[in-house]
């Protein structure tokens, strides 16, 4: 078809449409107004074609796809279609549609739709990439903002002022609420934009924490309860069995009415000791320890009609007061009294001769006359002296009776360890006496009336001596007198020498004449001289038996000294050696010939 024909048909269609409209209006057809326009199918629409409804004076020329409607217009579909009105773009994609059944409006595409005012019952924005902007916000007349999971984010009703929560006051906001912390309770830390706000307490508070509180009130607990860690570490109470009276400062165990500083109701087991500085009221006390000590600074008062038994190590007290007149007190190991016994009930001083304590027929202690011939005067004495009656009623210590808890001395206080009995002076022994060894320092008289047998081995009259030996070398300083020490004993039955102290000495215990001898060798040296002497009591004017020898350059020198020396008990003698070689030399240098030092009592 030529273009002229197309133009013609288009003009004809428009004329017929206008004419039909006027005819319908003039005739006032009661049916719904309908307008049908059909143009020939073409892909090249006329450039200056416009269609208007409701006016005969359209404003200018409209493009081929423009529909201008002036006045109130109702579009109603009579067809059974999905959309009453639908607009497609050049790509045949639906970009605007009005549903036939429920009247919903669907806007599609990637551009921006600007609505001056929108009032809807339901607004469904389904895109996940585009942004919807509401310049004046969204106002709900009813209902709520429903989230994707179906829950409501807010309710409808009358509009209210908006509320904001901020970290600090913001001048540009009118309904904000500032989030602030509290000193020592909650601290707030703002980590900045696109980050977090952290709320924290000044110290850790959780199941594994150990917080510190200056004060704590647990309002659910009972007054007076002493709290403790219960099952699982929970704070717990047992008011009936663990109670503190804060007014009277008293602790009750098993009672809520403690009458003293510590009140215990019920049986109590104490594995350690109890130290009490004031009264203790105990209905029953049982101590089972075999090695602990119970000390009571005050008195112990045992009441009741039962039996109190003290076992193990007994009962020790500073004062024992038994006041019962009917009960019996039994002491299996007796009573040990230090400091005397006093009876408050009995005063024996009014009885004859000062009275005495005795027992009556019932076994009780009582006072009675002292018929023993009167009192005895005991005078003060000397330590280690035996007492004796110096008069009919006088006791004194014996001057010549000595006892050191091991040995008995008669006429002497100087006893050797081996002497159980030491007699200084003449002794008369009558009857049969068996002596293992008899040592007599004076004349022994054996009288008639019996048989006397003396074995030669033990007939050692006037024999009193010692032999000491030196087992090691000893350095001698040049030109210096040296008293040699002796660390061994060959024979010393009377302890005249000691290997632990004063090892240079031989000490006499009996007065008399002693033969003293000593020898030793000195190491070889060709210089100087060698000498020795015996020295009594460390005195220079008590030097005996001295000798001087020339030096021996090859085999060494052997020096020996001896002398008779008068000694009394307590006197001692030493072996003095001297050399002046100019250097130190060893004494006792020949181990096969050890130095000896001995003395023997030879005369009395």
Low-confidence stretches: 3-9, 21-50, 60-66
The biggest beta sheet, please?
A: 5 strands, mixed
Q: Could you say what the CATH topology of the domain at 465-603 is called?
A: Jelly Rolls
- Proportion in helices: under 10%
Task: Please state the CA-atom Rg, rounded to the nearest Å.
Answer: 68 Å
The CATH C-level class name of the domain at 465-603? Mainly Beta
Task: Tell me the β content.
Answer: 25-35%
State the shape: elongated
Structural class: mainly beta
How many helices? The count is 1
Q: Which architecture of the domain at 465-603 per CATH?
A: Sandwich
Spatial separation of the terminal alpha carbons: 187 Å
Number of strands: 37
Mean pLDDT equals 73
Any chance you could write out the topology, listing elements then pairs?
Elements: H1 3-27, E1 51-53, E2 67-69, E3 83-88, E4 94-99, E5 105-107, E6 144-146, E7 152-155, E8 164-166, E9 176-178, E10 187-190, E11 197-200, E12 228-229, E13 235-236, E14 242-245, E15 250-253, E16 262-264, E17 275-276, E18 295-296, E19 356-359, E20 365-368, E21 377-378, E22 385-391, E23 394-403, E24 408-410, E25 421-423, E26 465-469, E27 474-476, E28 482-483, E29 488-491, E30 506-507, E31 512-522, E32 529-536, E33 543-550, E34 557-567, E35 572-579, E36 585-587, E37 596-603
Parallel strand pairs: 1-2, 8-9, 15-16, 17-18, 21-23, 24-25
Antiparallel strand pairs: 3-4, 4-5, 6-7, 10-11, 12-13, 14-15, 19-20, 22-23, 23-24, 26-29, 26-37, 27-36, 28-35, 30-35, 31-34, 31-37, 32-33, 32-35
